[in-house]
């Protein structure tokens, strides 16, 4: 079984200095995930010049590129038409950036307010997201780019899984942000992996102690990474992985510890290859459908 993962680092790793982040990715032999595109307060007035600058930095970068879509204060499902309008614009710009820079994966947040326990809000938000992504995903299909939906405040994996299944596009998949599960979900990351199965396309790995979104080293927090990657190995998934770690020293420490985690997880592969029940673990359709609460 192939034990290799496509690996990226986040462009946030050196205080948002994009050129420096690209050099670090080149040093590691990893891809680069563009986590922030320019400065939001200057986005519209400097969009073309920023794109030109990023293209120049990436001109001789040979590894793969992924992008994080815009997300700050956006809601494609808002009842306010002006908020929807600017949200659509930012999502479209995210797609344009990916096309221009040659990215193969784009990550979007759900922007779901999980604290608002109102059935009508949840139902409307869910339906509006389906309608949006059914159209939006068609552009990704034409360009051969995968759009992914990342968990942020969600407590369980069923909302995202049901949304992706409802849209039913081969170019709409899931991104598991492991640090976010440690903050907002009572379930272990390995439970999210089992629920999503083959819908899992990409991962953000970092760690925290459950009190803030620290984006710390893999060894510095409450996430059980050995169990997570044993589960990934069991069900033979190979999502691409971004080290979404903001400190350069913590990044290099995490790269070393990640290889140790993989080495310790790999012994299971021969054993589980002959388990006839394995296929049940990679069939999200067998999991319960999302129910509004």
Characterization of this structure:
This protein has 293 residues and is of the alpha/beta class. Helices cover 46% and strands 13% of the residues. It is globular and about 50 Å long.
Sum up the structure in keywords.
293 residues, alpha/beta, eight-stranded parallel beta barrel
Low-confidence stretches: 267-288
What is the average of the pLDDT values? Answer: 91
**Radius of gyration over C-alpha positions, nearest whole angstrom:** 19 Å
Tell me the β content.
5-15%
Structure summary, number of beta strands: 8
Q: Profile the largest sheet.
A: 8 strands, parallel, barrel
Q: Strand order across the biggest sheet?
A: 1-2-3-4-5-6-7-8
Helix content: 40-55%
Determine the number of helices (DSSP H or I, runs of at least 4 residues).
Answer: 11
Spell out the helices and strands N to C: EHEHEHEHEHEHHEHEHHH
Distance N to C terminus? 41 Å
Which structural category do the helix and sheet elements fall into? alpha/beta
Q: Judging from the principal axes of the Cα atoms, what is the shape?
A: globular
């Amino acid at each position: 079984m192939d034990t290799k993962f496509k690996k990226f680092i986040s462009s946030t790793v050196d205080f948002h200095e994009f050129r420096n982040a690209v050099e670090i990715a080149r040093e590691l032999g990893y891809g680069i995930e563009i986590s922030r595109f320019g400065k939001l307060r200057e986005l519209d007035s400097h969009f073309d010049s920023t794109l030109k600058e990023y293209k120049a930095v990436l001109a001789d970068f040979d590894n793969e590129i992924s992008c994080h879509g815009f997300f700050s204060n956006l809601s494609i499902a808002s009842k306010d038409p002006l908020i929807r309008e600017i949200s659509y614009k930012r999502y479209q710009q995210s797609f344009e950036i990916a096309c221009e820079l040659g990215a193969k994966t784009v990550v979007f947040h759900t922007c779901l307010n999980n604290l608002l326990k109102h059935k009508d809000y949840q139902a409307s938000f869910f339906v509006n997201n389906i309608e949006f992504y059914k159209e939006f995903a068609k552009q990704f299909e034409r360009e051969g780019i995968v759009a992914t939906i990342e968990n942020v405040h969600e407590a369980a994996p069923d909302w995202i899984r049901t949304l992706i299944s409802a849209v039913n596009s081969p170019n709409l998949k899931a991104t598991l942000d492991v640090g976010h599960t440690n903050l907002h979900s009572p379930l272990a990351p390995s439970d999210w992996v089992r629920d999503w199965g083959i819908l899992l396309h990409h991962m953000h790995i970092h760690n925290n102690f459950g009190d803030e979104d620290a984006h710390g080293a893999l060894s510095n927090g409450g996430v059980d990474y050995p169990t997570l990657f044993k589960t990934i190995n069991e069900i033979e998934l190979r999502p691409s992985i971004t080290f979404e770690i903001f400190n350069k020293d913590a990044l290099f420490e995490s790269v070393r510890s990640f290889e140790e985690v993989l080495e310790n997880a790999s012994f299971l592969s021969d054993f589980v290859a002959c388990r006839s029940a394995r296929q049940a673990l990679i069939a999200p359709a067998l999991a319960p459908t999302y129910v509004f609460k």
